[in-house]
Specification:
Elements: H1 31-75, H2 78-116, E1 119-123, H3 132-151, E2 157-161, H4 165-172, E3 183-185, H5 189-192, E4 200-203, E5 219-223, H6 234-242, E6 245-247, E7 256-257, H7 265-278, H8 281-288, E8 294-295, H9 303-314
Helix pairs in contact: 3-4, 3-7, 7-8, 8-9
């Protein structure tokens, strides 16, 4: 594995300020990695095609409903027409009021999370190791993280650290990003949270410590690195050099993963948030981890959870306060170091 950049006195990875980063900083992909990448590309192409078909179906359905509505009005008397229009306005008003109420509750939950919520950090201090497409993928995942946390009944206090350079530029392009209920820090977490270093816990697959519970006093860190598995063990090495604790999720105690043992950043965050809601790892794993990444059947009946898992794999959701203008948010299926119990 190619070496990353050097470390400064605080344990953060150095990023050149004036000199441009070298063009080829990562080793070439192995044949096995190339096969996985090709498989991933085919999957994404198929998904894009399906999304286009769904969009076309939605357009046609909208046209059909509009035509039906116009025909209904045309065949109705003046009195019936007025009643139909008034009824439709009333339903629309109810939907708007409900949406406004839900938004207010969401803001209240997120404000409360800033005070007493579990602190979870997404470490995006790896942008200098990623290509533009990988940075774009990570930004999409962060967008989904924010959406998941906002919908949760027990949201966490979400942080982004190492937000600078290209990563900062791309995040700033997100609609409404400046209004997000999230802590944005340009410094590395080891600097931004220097007074809480003893409570920092980096989640990494290479750790020997299995995470049994989430300690409210601890600050859990997720590595925001989309690298197609080029930099194996980089988060563990970083944590060791910084002298902070590490841990891995207890996935192996509840399910057997398939050959693809990678999860996206948003899936790891969603697992943690789901655990905060249920205090049940099993429910969190089976709700979030797609069936295609699992092998075998669990002895306990998880039929009620299967459809939820499928929805998380295919369905896109709102990602910020302006998400009403964006119907679907594509989740990038890319490789990222993930705190699985079984290290590869």
């Amino acid at each position: 594995m190619a070496a990353a950049t050097g470390n400064d006195d605080n344990g953060c990875f150095d990023k050149p300020e004036s000199e441009p980063a070298p063009v080829n900083v990562s080793p070439p992909l192995s044949k096995n990695a190339q096969k996985k990448q090709l498989k991933q590309q085919r999957y994404e192409a198929k998904k894009a095609e399906k999304k286009a078909q769904e969009k076309e179906h939605k357009r046609k359905e909208g046209e059909r409903k509009l035509k039906e509505w116009e025909e209904t009005l045309a065949n109705a008397t003046e009195e019936e027409r007025l009643k139909l229009i008034e009824s439709r306005k009333s339903l629309r008003k109810e939907r708007m009021e409900k949406r406004s109420e839900e938004k207010e509750k969401k803001i209240e939950r997120l404000n409360q999370a800033k005070e007493i919520g579990q602190k979870i950090v997404v470490d995006v201090d790896f942008a200098h190791l990623m290509s533009e497409s990988e940075i774009s993928s990570l930004v999409q995942q962060i967008m989904y993280c924010y959406a998941v946390n906002g919908r949760s009944t027990s949201p966490c206090h979400l942080w982004l650290t190492g937000v600078q350079g290209k990563m900062s530029t791309e995040l700033d392009k997100l609609p409404g990003f400046e209004k997000w209920f999230i802590e944005k820090e340009s410094r590395c977490y080891i600097e931004a949270m220097a007074d809480q270093k003893d409570n920092l816990v980096y989640l990494t697959a290479d750790s020997e410590t299995v995470l049994d519970d989430l300690d409210p006093k601890h600050i859990y860190i997720i590595g925001g690195l989309v690298d197609r598995n080029r930099f194996k063990g980089i988060t563990m090495t970083k944590a060791q050099e910084q002298g902070i604790k590490t841990a891995k999720l207890p996935i192996g105690e509840y399910m057997k993963m398939s050959s693809s043992q990678v999860l996206t950043v948003n899936q790891v965050l969603e697992i943690l948030v789901k655990f905060l809601e249920t205090r049940d790892w099993k429910t969190a794993f089976f709700t979030v981890i797609p069936q295609r990444k699992r092998t075998g059947l669990d002895p306990v009946d998880c039929s009620k959870l299967e459809h939820i898992s499928e929805e998380h794999q295919e369905k896109d959701t709102e990602a910020n306060e302006s998400a009403d203008k964006h119907d679907l948010l594509e989740r990038k299926k890319v490789c990222v170091e993930v705190p699985l119990e079984s290290s590869s």
